[in-house]
Structure formats: C-alpha cells, structure tokens
Amino acid sequence: MTTQIRSPQGLPYPIQIDKLIPSVGSYLHEGDRLLVYKFWYLVERASDTGDDDNEHDVSPGGSAGSNGVSPPTKQLRESIEFFESPYEGDLISWNVDVGDEVATANQVICEIKRPCNHDIVYGGLCTQCGKEVSADAFDGVPLDVVGDVDLQISETEAIRTGKALKEHLRRDKKLILVVDLDQTIIHCGVDPTIAEWKNDPNNPNFETLRDVKSFTLDEELVLPLMYMNDDGSMLRPPPVRKCWYYVKVRPGLKEFFAKVAPLFEMHIYTMATRAYALQIAKIVDPTGELFGDRILSRDENGSLTTKSLAKLFPTDQSMVVVIDDRGDVWNWCPNLIKVVPYNFFVGVGDINSNFLPKQSTGMLQLGRKTRQKSQESQELLTDIMDNEKKLQEKIDKEVKRQEEKLNHQLATAEEPPANESKEELTKKLEYSASLEVQQQNRPLAKLQKHLHDQKLLVDDDDELYYLMGTLSNIHKTYYDMLSQQNEPEPNLMEIIPSLKQKVFQNCYFVFSGLIPLGTDIQRSDIVIWTSTFGATSTPDIDYLTTHLITKNPSTYKARLAKKFNPQIKIVHPDWIFECLVNWKKVDEKPYTLIVDSPISDEELQNFQTQLQKRQEYLEETQEQQHMLTSQENLNLFAAGTSWLNNDDDEDIPDTASDDDEDDDHDDESDDENNSEGIDRKRSIEDNHDDTSQKKTKAEPSQDRPVQHKGEGDDNEDSDSQLEEELMDMLDD
Predict the structure, then answer these.
(1) Which stretches are tagged as biased composition: Basic and acidic residues (predicted)?
(2) CA distance 685 to 673
(3) What is the mean pLDDT of the chain?
(4) Which of 307, 445, 648, 691 is most deeply buried (CB count within 10 A of its CB)?
C-alpha cells in the first residue's frame, strides 16, 4: 500500500514546481530533498539593492527623482525553496511535473511505498517495526487511551478502527453516549455540614440525605517551586490531607441507565481527576457493566478548559451523542444535548468547574420550576446566588494571594518547573482553594439558618425522565433512516440539530431581568442554548419579537411589550426550560404572566419613533455594506499569483507588438500540446523521454486595450512600468 505525500500547511501558496530531484524508483530517506519550488511576492523598496543568493530581483527599479533619491517602488521578487520528504521509502510515482502550480495545501505531490507505515506508535516507538518515530515522520492522530497519553495511531489505522467500531455498533443496533459527571448525573460537595446532617435524625434534611454516598481522596499538594532548605536539600513534604466528598445521584439515574444501556455504548468524559472519576464510577456503576474502562478524565484530556470528541473518536463522530450541563466546553458541538444543571447541594455549584471557563451568575442558572416556589423560597434563591458570589470572591482572593507567591517563586527560580505550566499550577491552586473555602465557610449551614426548621435540600429533579425519552427518539430516528434504501447514511451531527431546530422555529426572544447588565447576550449560555433549538434573541423589542421572557411582569420591557404588541407572549423562564427538556414547543398559557400596568401612550410613541430610526439606520448600514462587498477589487495580486502561468486567465498587457506575435505563436503551440492529452503522472511502469521546458509569455488582455507609454496620465505610466517589470520576469 502506498503513502501519499501531500503539500503541507504553511507554504507561501501558490507555488510553482521548478525541479523534481529524485527519479521514480529511487529510495528516499526522511529529510531527503524531493523538489525545488518557487514563488513570487511584492516588496516596496526605496532604492535598488544587490541580489541575494536565494532571491532575485525580477524587475528594474524606478528612475531617480530630481533630488537624486529613488522614489519607493513596488517590485516583484522570486524566491526558491526545497521541499523535503517527511517519510522514507521507494518513490512510486510523481503526481506533479515541472512548471505545475500547487495552489493550496493538501494536494498530492507524489506517492511512495514505505517499509513500515508506523500505524501504531507507543512512547515514540513503532509497535510493528520497533523503530523510533519522530513527530514529523508520524502521519497520524493522537488517541488518548484510558490512563495513557503515549499512544498514537495513523490516520489509516484510525479510519480502520472507526469502521470496525461502526460495524460493531450497527450489528448490536447501538449508538454511543458520552456522559459528563458533575451536575449532569451527580452532584458533589465537600461541605462537612452534609455529614453532620446525614447523621442527625432530627435534622430536617435527614431523609433527603439518606442515599448520599461518600468517599475520601488525598488532596493534591501544590508545593512551592523552591520547596527546599537553605542548604539546597529537599524539605520533607507536609502530611497528605484527606478530603471527604459527598455525592448525590440525580433522581431516576438507575431507571435512566436501564432504559438507555441497551441502546448506547456509554463513555464517561469528565474534567475531574481520574481518581475522582473512578470513585464516581463505582457509585453509579458498581459492577462496571455500563462503562467498564471507558473513562476519560482531566488527566488524559490534554486541555484544562475544553472537551473534544476527537479525543475518543478521531475520525468519525456520526454515531455519538453527548450529554453535559456545560455547552461552552464543547463549543456547542452538534452532537451535544445540554441538560439543566443538577443543583442538589444548593449554593455549592460544581467543585470541578474551576478548570472550566467562568460563567456569569444569573437567575436562569437555577433551572426549572422556580415559578412554583413561595415568596420565602424566592428570597432563598436570592440568598443562594449571593452566597455563591461571596464564595467565589473568597476563592478568587485566596487564589490571588497564592498566585502572587507563585509569581515571586517563578521570578527567583533558576530553573522553571519541568512538567507543569503556570496555567496548570494556577488551576490547581483554584481547585484547592475552592475545596478549602467550601470546607471552612460551610455554605449549607448558612443557608439553612434562613429556613430555620424547614427542609433546605429538595430532590424534585426530573431531568433524566425527559432525557431518556429524547435519547430513545434519537436512536429510533437514526436506525429508521439507516433501514431506508437508497438514502444517505444517517449522521447524528445532522440528525440532532435538525430535531432541535423545530422546537423554537420562527420564535424571536427578548429576555428581561435575567441576563446580567453589560453582558453581550449573544454570548450568554441561555441565548446560545435556545439558538441551537431554532430561536433568535435580540436585546430589545422590535417588530419581529414573539416572546418576552421574564420572572417579573413589572419590568419596563414587559410593560412595553404589552402595550406595543399584545400578540407578544410574556412568559416565565420555566416555559423555555419545559420546551428544552421536552424537545417540543409546549403551550405558553400555564406560563403566561399578567402585566397590570402597560406603559403610557406617550412612552409608546417615543419608543416607536426610536424603533423606526433604528430600523432605518440598520437598513442604511446593510445597504452600504452590500455596496462595499460588491465593488471589484482591482489589486493585481488580490487573487494570488496563479495568473503568472495560466493562459486562461487575464494576462498583463504589453507594449511591444513583436511580443504579441510571439505570444500568439506560443498559444498555438500550447493548444497543440493540450490536445494531445499528455498525462503528467509518471510511474515505475512508464518510460517517458525527457522533454525540454517551454518558456511561456503573457499575452495582451482581451478585455481592455493595450496602453503604451505616453498615453494617459501618471497612473497609466505607473501601470505600464509594473507591466514591464512583470514581462521582464517572465522572459528571464
């Protein structure tokens, strides 16, 4: 089996093949020179300079000015470079010839037969031939295997493995489900108050905490970089501290797994440590039948802030579904089903979220069913948000103190730490600080004081009940499409978005009192989330607005919507969540809010005037933008330099008539050669005679008349000068 050598990224495309160095049948070593290529670029120069060894002026300089100093001129320069073989092996065939233009990356240059393709590389060594494989010689993708980041497979092997997995899944009529842990199927806290309440039958939260599980892990020590005595000897590290974790499984998880396990092969993907993930797996899957060893943690992920399906399935994600409470870490990929975060231990949040991008605190993060809560509960929700904010402030303060200490150590250290970046150390500091702050501040105990003897922890979440129905529907849709004859293969990256888009189709939302002031709403999670379901959101009410989402019907926007357009539905955020969990647009009536005092007629008139001005401004801006984009770009090099050797494109007009005649003659020769249909690809079996390289000249443009020196104004003289420079280059 041959390997194709393709044009790599980073070359100054377009390039022209100037010389092919090895002949077909030659044996290549890694790093051997394959070919010589050249390219052109413009430079602006104040005066003429001598030629470099590897670069040549191909146009004359401008004439000197009256003061003896040459004015700046644009000159076309040619550069020549070598392209080296990334692999070793026998050269089987060339796919390019001298004079060919390579316009972009990833075009096939030649094909070789390698003694070993190094399809599987472990620890830098090929598992098949035992040779050491450099990064440049390995044409593959890194594949993070459980607990091991040293394994790499080639693209060929990855495709073969992907096809085998697809066949296996289809034979068992399954899909793949990638499952997040924290706030998706469990909620975890480290507040010692949890253990105290769990062991106190008189506590109002005792019954709710009956099924809470716990485990302990050694805290990861973040030691100073220069942790040593004055004499240079290493200090004995402090004793390892134990940290107790308390885990509440999301209601209905057992039934959820029983429903989806026959339909999906399941994987865990978490931004927590591997030790933490293994402990959670023991709780949610004690027998190991559901997940087995299919666990990817922060330790193997390779990123502290993002997740990627390519880590698990590098070549094909068409059968993969992801469930996660965070969409941003996945860059809202089409495979994602975002779930409402599970917040059982109120005011605690996700203990592993310090490694993820920061989220703004808002009422929408509290999830569903908030409209059914009493006034006292509404006050509690406000306290929860305030408590989370204060905890985060304390964490940030502690992290800042530790960072200042870390920066001082980095500045004074003779050698930087070998294995950890500053970012990794900072994230570990944040994680350690978040655990310590939660343990010391006991947020649950503070919130319980607000309710006295009433129950603080309520376990009424039903997200998984709806989710199992959604996953079953996706599974059915996929295999129904697969069973249809003469239809393209089903792809979940298309199926999931198409099902989502129907939910809020033709819905235009405005949020009031829910997104923090100063926030770009298009970057808000709830706006992005609803947009994946087909909604369009704007910051202000306009003629297209269909829904105003608010908790408070007395906000100005709610009162404005009522007066401006009575057809606008003013609804509680719970309506959005019900639509999202059901994957269908539910009736707005149970969620409609009553607006008692719309704005006055005068206020409405002022708003309509401002709205009209805004609409006119937008239309004018769009028209101007359209005019700008429709103008032709007259820059000679705007489309690259491919025209230099392409007779079909518009050529540079010349001033000499004899050159025109030569060009016509050359064109006739080109037509004769093209009609013969000579195949440029050469192989071992082919025996071609060497042919002389033909010099090609530019011909006059047929779209505009030839301009000679002395005709027109100064601009025409400048154009003619540039044309002469180009012609001189082509004649060399």
Answers:
(1) 677-712
(2) 23
(3) 77
(4) 307
Task: Find the DSSP H helices in 172-252.
Answer: 193-198
Which residue type sits at 622? Q
Q: d(Cα 282, Cα 292) in Å, to the nearest integer?
A: 10
Active-site residue, 180 included = yes
- Coil, helix or strand for 338? strand
Q: Which of 139, 180, 350, 461 is catalytic?
A: 180
How much of the chain, in percent, has pLDDT values that exceed 90? 45
Reported as a pLDDT band with limits 50, 70 and 90, residue 75 is confident
Region 554-583: mean pLDDT is 95
CB-CB neighbours of 498 under 10 Å = 10
Tell me which architecture the domain covering 175-451 has in CATH: 3-Layer(aba) Sandwich (3.40)
CATH architecture of 1-115: Beta Barrel (2.40)
Cis-peptide into 239, omega within 30 deg? no
Residue 33 phi, psi dihedral angles, 5° rounding: -75, 125
- Give the model's pLDDT for residue 412: 56
pLDDT digit string (tens) for 152-182? 777 777 888 889 999 999 999 999 999 999 9
Known catalytic residue at 182: yes
C-alpha 577/C-alpha 575 separation (Å) is: 5
- Cβ atoms of 224 and 405 within 8 Å: the answer is yes
Q: At 76, is the secondary structure helix, strand, or coil?
A: strand
The two tokens of residue 481 are 């499409």
Chain-centroid distance, C-alpha 333: 8
Q: Which one of the listed residues 182, 325, 654, 663 is annotated catalytic?
A: 182
Helix (H) or strand (E) holding 46: none
**Under DSSP, is residue 47 helix (H, G, I), strand (E, B) or coil?**
coil
In tens, the pLDDT along 401-453 reads 666 665 655 555 545 454 555 566 666 666 666 677 777 778 888 788 777 78
Domain segments of the chain as ranges: 1-115, 119-172, 175-451, 647-731
Give the pairing of strands 213-218 and 120-122: unpaired
Q: Where are the beta strands (DSSP E) in 129-276?
A: 140-142, 151-154, 175-179, 186-189, 213-218, 242-249, 264-269
